[in-house]
Amino acid sequence: MAAEPLSQFGHDVWWVIVIKTLLIFVILVLLTLFNIWWERRVVARMQHRIGPNVHGPFGLLQSLADGVKLALKEDLTPKAADKVVFLIAPVLATVPAFVTFAVIPFGPTVNFFGQETPLQLTDMPVAVLFVMAIASIGIYGIVLGGWSSGSTYSLLGGLRSSAQMISYEVAMGLALVAVFLYAGSMSTSQIVDAQDDLWFGLILAPSFVIYCIAMVGETNRAPFDLPEAEGELVGGFHTEYSSLKFALFFLAEYINMATVSALATTLFLGGWHAPFWIDHVWAGANEGYWPVLWFFGKVLFFIFVFIWLRGSLPRLRYDQFMAFGWKRLIPIALVWIVAVATIRSISLEGGIDRRWLLIGIGVLAVIFVVLFFIGDSAEETEEVEAVAHPGGFPVPPMPAGGAVRGAAQPLTFENRSPITEPVAATRSAGEEI
């Protein structure tokens, strides 16, 4: 890939950079307010409720009212908390969420107040790695917030979150390797240019699916919201937070949703390119400010999927969730990377016919899937055998005669009068006195 797209950056005047930075900040805050309202409306519709509809047109100002309410609440700090770290943790979680959008391309080069500039704050040869690195800093905010609270529940929530996010970052990073192989670059603008004709989400479907699963786990969203499992951890790592510090954690979660959605749009759905090949019919679809509309339309599609999952699926058990990440997603991603690298190498060097290569990979995939399910059944058998013994973990042992089926066994009592015997016992006790 030529380095021409990267040469467009680094030449903006200072006031253009300032305006771009302020626009990204304002857009993310407004998008968060909209996403909160949209989530409440969609989930309400799924549950046959109305949702917010009083404040503002269609209830659009409800999120703003909630934000003002949070700001006016009393700000409490536990006595056992480490006050400095307790204060810094929400900032550590929120700032990286904003910084990651610095390398996200919103559109092509446009006339911006008389200046020709791309609709992107900056870009670099390793822009995707920059996003992954900055996003991982947000984990420190969550871990330190749980540790500094001085609460056992908050500490457990922070530890859960760190293990969860680190585990699914591995799967997410492996899913992106195939994109780098096909695009020939880690620059976000060059990856978008490489999808001018065909989106990577179509030709790299397994990577796309793995990334979509990993991004839900990475953002602690249902059904993977284990750090905030109310049944065992109250509110999780932010249990002891209130007022604006709690609002910062809340803001970071929704901006992280927008970040992973924007990254999925950029890497797999053509970025700001018009969907459904509209540009073949309308030549101006990918020019000017129209691509901004296509970009945010795709981002909102991913956010709708987040909401849909929350309203549909129950929360996983923590051991199931971690086992799925390490035993399923990561091995599948590694096998897929080997397959993509093989196809890419043979295609570039002009080796064997691609049809036979695809057939061979298909046969290997079928064998892998069969072994995948055989392994599942063997694990289930071992688990049942372990549970059958007394003291089995994590489920209580089965009854000695096996599972009870049908109606419960009838209760039997000794043939005695429950009224006369206590009376007789009391009378004899009185006689002794």
UniProtKB/TrEMBL annotation:
Localization per Swiss-Prot or TrEMBL: Cell membrane; Membrane
Keywords: Cell membrane, Membrane, NAD, Oxidoreductase, Quinone, Translocase, Transmembrane, Transmembrane helix, Ubiquinone
Enzyme Commission code(s) on record: 7.1.1.-
Key word NAD present: yes
TM regions (residue ranges): 13-38, 84-106, 126-147, 168-186, 198-217, 246-269, 289-309, 329-348, 354-374
Catalytic activity: a quinone + NADH + 5 H(+)(in) = a quinol + NAD(+) + 4 H(+)(out)
One MF term in the entry's GO annotations: NADH dehydrogenase (quinone) (non-electrogenic) activity
PROSITE patterns assigned to the protein according to its UniProt record, in alphabetical order: COMPLEX1_ND1_1, COMPLEX1_ND1_2
Recorded topology in the membrane: Multi-pass membrane protein
Family matches, as Pfam families: NADHdh
Enzyme class: translocase
HAMAP family reported in the protein's UniProt record: NDH1_NuoH
Function: NDH-1 shuttles electrons from NADH, via FMN and iron-sulfur (Fe-S) centers, to quinones in the respiratory chain. The immediate electron acceptor for the enzyme in this species is believed to be ubiquinone. Couples the redox reaction to proton translocation (for every two electrons transferred, four hydrogen ions are translocated across the cytoplasmic membrane), and thus conserves the redox energy in a proton gradient. This subunit may bind ubiquinone.
Binding partners and assembly: NDH-1 is composed of 14 different subunits. Subunits NuoA, H, J, K, L, M, N constitute the membrane sector of the complex.
Protein name: NADH-quinone oxidoreductase subunit H
Organism this protein belongs to: Nocardioides hankookensis
Record gene name: nuoH
